[in-house]
Predict the 3D structure of the following.
Amino acid sequence: MSQPIRNIAILAHVDAGKTTLSERILFAAGEVRRPGRVEDGLATMDYMPEEKERGITIESGVAHFEWKDSWFNFIDTPGHVDFGAEVDMALSAVEGAVLVVSAASGVETQTIAAFKKLREAGVRTILFVNKLDNPDYSLDDTLINIEEILGVRPVLMTLPQYENGRMTGVLDVLSQSRLTHSDTGEEVVDDGWNVEDGWDGSRELKQHYAEAVEFASSFDDEVLKLAMDGKRVPPKMLLRGLKALANSDDYALCYAGSAMEGFGVRSLVTALTFFLPDVPEFNEGELGQVIRLRHFKGVGEISLFRSHTDMERKAWPAGFEFSRLKANLLQPVDEIRSGDIYAMRTPFETELGQTIYLDGSGVSPEPGASNLEPTTSIRDKYQPLLQTRVECLGSEDYHHVEKSLNTLGRMDPSFRVQKDDGGFWYLHTVGEVQLDVLLARLKREFGCEVRAGSPEVRWQERLCRDVGPVENTFQLGPHKISIKVSATPLDSDAHDIRLSAEFLETAPREILAGVRSALLESTEVGILGKGALVGVCFEVHEFTWTDGALPPMIKKACADAVTKLIKPADVQLYEPIMELSLECPVNFAGLVTGDIQARDGKVKEIGGDGKTHFLKADIPLRKIFGYATGVRSISKGTALYSMKLLGYRPATV
């Protein structure tokens, strides 16, 4: 029987200890000699210089390890909101996930967002309550917080133990054992402790075992019968009931401990072998699917690839190579297994979500065609809020920079590049951190020296009246293209293109596609250059062309027609409004609130527990540039905050 495969991801709010937990898992599995500290820039999974410098995960790191005869592919995902697309792509390739909740902060904004992503993706989730090495942080309060905010009943499976205010071990509910540290720092079962001896924690441990039996009885008739008869439910039977419970949307298995101190990790990883589903069955004839793209200096582009078949090296398609990827290191393999994750080199350029067949051919993803979400659909989720002008230092570098930017755009579905006819580009990014990282990677990985302007808010431009029709003609040599077009506003942010019946009947498919593409592309830059033109319906009344007209001619004719059709006076600007969630010690509440109001923010919710102040506010994005530095100064580094796009409103400036 082949070794079971478990593909897992770890998600959390920023600073909940996600990457530290990842390091501890690798240490427990024997993959690293000692767990690297994020604070020291030594985290194994955070291999990029930008990750080490910032202490955050940017790219979804991949590691592999074995635990109790199971093979794990382990993806450490970013927690920062700027890199949400990385999380989406990672979840497309896993069956299970660990959601880390900090006992210091409870369920936070990104915790909720991550839990929602997991639910939408149908990924089985196990909770880990972290940072309990501080006895001042309450496990009970965190469990109540989880139930109230996430709407699931946490079933506690490990209990922290303390001695003189210091965490000394955890009690495992299922095995009814105590785990502590060996002399080498590994988590091991304490053979001298027995739940029946009435030692410290025995009563509490038995109580939680009984609770687990009660919860599991709703999912297993045999467990229910023994429980109703007052008989003991053996661990193997309880395990079966908990497997069914883990698949329920109403409950979540919950492990508690400290990633920093290495407590609760062993029980958590063992749970991942027990409670996660097997990899699915895949379609015959498929080699696998591209789940991420990476670029390494000196190596070039590789694809993170999920295999859909078992195959030895001799049967691989010509020009294909497969390796294990550990952080940024490639280790060649001689065979691939169905459901496993590899790094793949191919003789052609791949795309995110692309299905590769056994003969080596590839088909780009179509919406709904696979369990991997199409890149276009992920792009629609992440609205670029900033735009930054970038230009070459020397004209001889133009083509290299353009190719490098396009590669980065293919790797990150939330980042977009808009080419300008003036010889420069606009980079459209979700936030400032993503922009900084992209520029750093452009230089480090691709060797591109560019000049970047200051980031500007990417507004929305909306058509506010019916315009046209207008006619435009473009001629180049013997070839001529003419278009007659009008436009009307829509109530939504969508675009619509209506073509005349005659044009639809007479034009070949490539001409129709060229016109649609050219009109949509013209909306990306907008009329005022402040952002994309949204909520517009173009109606093409007439379109004529000569045989042999090239696509660039169609693009030019349509772009010039839109410029003639829509004038600045026909457009109204809308600005992005962010929802800011912030918490800080109460002694900084006045300063923090005053600063938000000075930035035209409107506080809409205030709360707290007497020690910590919490607020939510709506604030224009243009007023919150550099907020991380400002709030750090005001609160002496104690404030934690997150932002998300709330919507757009008519600009008042």
